[in-house]
Amino acid sequence: MPNATRGSNRGPAAAPENRRALLDAARRVFAERGYRAPLSAIAQEAGVGQGVLYRHFPTRLDLALEVFEQHFVELEALAAEPDAGAFGRLWTRLLELTVEESAFVEMFLAARHDLAETDLADRLPALVAATLPRAQSAGLVSAHLTVADVLLLQRMVYGVVATAVTDDEARDAVAQALALLDGVLEG
């Protein structure tokens, strides 16, 4: 629903408020309609014109990177925890984000050709690489599991989510798929 409380054009003074409104609207619209949702829908939800959106975020990727930056900050905080359980908490939260906000993964897939301009391609593998060895040393996950394996598993989970009809079906299917892998993942 568009923001009906916005007043007349306040020009540059409204820039911080417009930016916040765009980010909030983009989170909602991406969650409901996916990464490829029309940018016009995001501008409308924020109660601003498309020109305002493009002044703040020249490309879809710029907007998505900003929207999902909070996820990276959260995942980085989990990876920074020094105990062996950090990998499990990182993995669990990554799966939750994949199920709850598949647009987060869609952004990676759609932007893979533009990733050279960002650190996006390196951030998630680095978080897994920082936590996986501690979990393996503690016997919490298989010593044979690699960073590439973990990222492949996450992509597989996304495939399950992307082909599910409802959110409940996605959650159930992910749980079932992960149950099939329990013996493979365990140390």
From TrEMBL:
| Domain HTH tetR-type, first and last residues per copy | 16-75
Please give the DNA-binding region boundaries: 38-57
The record ties this protein, via InterPro entries, to: Homeodomain-like_sf, HTH-type_TetR-like_transc_reg, HTH_TetR
Tell me which domain of life the UniProt entry assigns to the organism this sequence originates from.
Bacteria
**Which Gene3D superfamilies does the UniProt entry name for this protein?**
Tetracycline Repressor, domain 2
Q: Which UniProt keywords apply?
A: DNA-binding, Transcription, Transcription regulation
Q: What is this protein called?
A: AcrR family transcriptional regulator
